[in-house]
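hey so i finally got around to running both of the ones u sent me last week. sorry it took forever, my laptop kept dying halfway thru and i had to restart like 3 times lol. anyway pasting them below in the order u listed, first the sequence line then the structure token line for each. didnt double check formatting much so if smth looks off just lmk and ill redo it

first one:
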Amino acid sequence: MATIEVADIFRTAGPAYRVAHAGHLSLHQLRIMSAVEQCRTAALGGHVEACTDCGHWRIAYNSCRNRHCPKCQGAAARIWLAEREADLLPVGYFHVVFTLPAEVGAIAHQNKAIVYDLLFRAASETMQIIAADPKHLGARIGITAVLHTWGSALTHHPHIHMIVPGGGISLDGERWISARPAFLLPVRVLGALFRRLFLTRLVALYHAGRLGFFGNIAHLDERRAFLRHLSPVRKKRWVVYAKPPFAGPEAVLAYLARYTHRVAISNRRLLRFDEAGVTFRYKDYRRGGADRQQVMTLATDEFIRRFLLHALPKGFHRIRHYGLLASGTRKNNLERARHLLAVAPPPADDITSAPQPTLPPCPCCGGHMIIIEIVERRYQPRAPPAFASSPGRSAS
């Protein structure tokens, strides 16, 4: 069965979608659609590669490098992981998730930059405040946080994934305090503080006139309606989920590879694209076991609409570091942590720069491929050079 890609859906149905929704799509969304459609096509240019052993040649077109493109995130994740590997400490790592309730999610969707930033700040401060409390851990911790805005069915579901070392540096800086083997911080305490910090600041943003309300929530522009909308949310338990610690640094890196550069839907989840719409796999978290994996078909316009729901504001950082891992002090904090843990720093050779891209080996003989021609944007490459099709050499 032929592989289906989001790019195929956009190329086929994108023009009609843009016409049908003219005036309702932002320039940012239009650019995302265009980038995904043109990714690894002649429109972006590329190069011709040839094998130095058998002469086989192939055309490789450039990637769009848009962070919403399903095809471009693998290389970005590998580079990012190489930079993070040297930061890992020889301790257990926990996975913590902070989720916004649906009532707040609707406000977040129409105020993405402001409310997503508030989500980051409230979640990270919650973790650091509770961790510093002597009744709990009594230490300064490090956090790597990643924003996801989608549920498995492409619905709007903003939440923060965190990777947190199982311990931290004491408040006086003199010792490392380890978390209990399978317990980091109490989730009910985290949820209560997260709710208070987030709602207090959301109301402050409203009073400062920094929130906008449109469409089916336009009535929230009126103060009493806004406060009435938040009233049940104040009584609801806000979900904070903490998983057991990972089994070693390799598992942490494997998790990060899956989560840090994920987009709303990967190409491998797509099953069919036809007149009925787009069919894809998703997880129904209300079910257990094998029943959790489900299949859904959406009308093509609805699929595109849901995909574009998750367009992040231009320049918005969806991966952030806090506490011991905050950029300005990370190096000194990690050196101090390793000293307190009595472990040697990673060898200088292990702290490498981002890996340089290498060409995949020749599919015919496994030989070394070299670039023999640069293809300009929107131009097709010339026929293969003479040496690539000389007698005894394959040119296909």
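and the second one:
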Amino acid sequence: MLQKRNLNLFYILSIFVSVFAIWEAFALRWVCDDAFISFVYARNLFENGALVFNANEYVEGFSNFLWTILLSLGFLLNLSPTNFSIILGLSSFVCLLWFLFYLENELNFAKVLPIFLIHICLFRHNWIFATSGLETMSFVLFVTVGLISEKLRGYVFFFACMTRPEGILFFGLYALSERKRWMKLENVFFSIVLVSLFFFRLIYFGDYLPNTFYAKASHGGNFLQGCKYIFYFFKSYPIYFIVFAYSVVLLLISVFRKSKDWLLNFGVLIYISYILYVGGDFMGIRFLMPILPYLSYLVYREILNADEKLQFESNKKGILKIYEKNRILIVLFFILSTAVYRNPLSSEGKKFADWNGIAEEREFYENKLIDLSGYGDPIPKVRMAFFGAQAHFVYNLRPLYAFEAEVGLTDSEFAKREKIDFGRIGHNGQLTMEDLKKRNIHLIWANKFPERNLPIIMYNWRGFMIPVYVLRMDSTISNDLCSKQYWDCKSFFEELKKRNLPIDEEHSFL
């Protein structure tokens, strides 16, 4: 008979580590620049009933359909998308911890410590991506619950598909494994909704896939960068390497033996291969997040199985005997595998912007972008070109037109162009002056063409003087822009005078 555990101690420790993790996530709350692209779509959906970034341009410049729809509902509650996204992200994290607590509590083994819950709660990147403004933690929740829980699998994989395109992988393999029972009412409903969503995308946006796929993932394989991305994870959590490697072995064994859930385990291997193929992401560890709880769960179940065998098998030999002698050390090692964190971007008192094109965005932004004040009045007459890091300016300044000029997230023609083979993933487009001319851009938020010696207008954002480069300007736009708070056009007018150009005429510097 299994040894009874101290339930009170188990519950107290579970509550303590969960509260600790939630508090750390709240203390580290932040919003990244990419999130503001979804915020623009959500606001336009709420205000104008159109899921667009620029008026009358139907381009799916986001890869988080359900998340964007939910963000639009936040406007009904008079909540800013920054605050509402933090609420949604933290709520997803709380649900994840509750599910894992319930799971561990149901596994009736002789455990005093909730070791799996502690293991997850001490993982720093769970705290980081519990917020960020992105859908990351909600997708982690759906994938984790789906991979572990048979009862909820269809429901959560359905929501995973609605949240991110990668969810289709797990939903499709789930459908394949359940093909003999697929005519259940909920499965038929899920299929109809997902097929309808596909045709909605095709009709509304005119494409089979989100524009973000073409912008970031259609440039072909980048296996070497993918290896660096995985290695970055191991540099961050060096002890977890053993857990990761063992979990992959367990996945392979499951697939080769075609044991229970082998198709879904095969899906996890495909997902890892996909990360390696596309080169990962520029945000450290973010793409790995959805499968990490499940990988840890596989190893955790092995620990539980070994504990059970110790109680029933009197003749202990081989691996079981080794486990019996080192039981405490193995459990401690499992817990510490997420607790031991080393920042790869910091060493010998120095901080680095990135490591091989991989960065920790939270360290750069901290909580600066949560507050939406200090931007000034909208500039509705300006057509601007911006890059990923300036998406928050687009959201707050509301220009007439905005062109994402890094890889074309919001522009289908630019997104499908061939990418450069080097640089940070998702930051390797090839912008030309012709692209800016074609879109009648007035201002660009970076000096991408230093040889042109472009005039500048200074923008004062919370005390930081940011040069914005002028490509084309007329008196109507300059009078409107330069009269607004935070915009200083002195250097621009001086440059016009220096070049003997009249102030009241239109000028192009392209």
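quick thing i noticed on the 2nd:
The first helix runs from residue 7 to 27.
anyway thats it, ttyl
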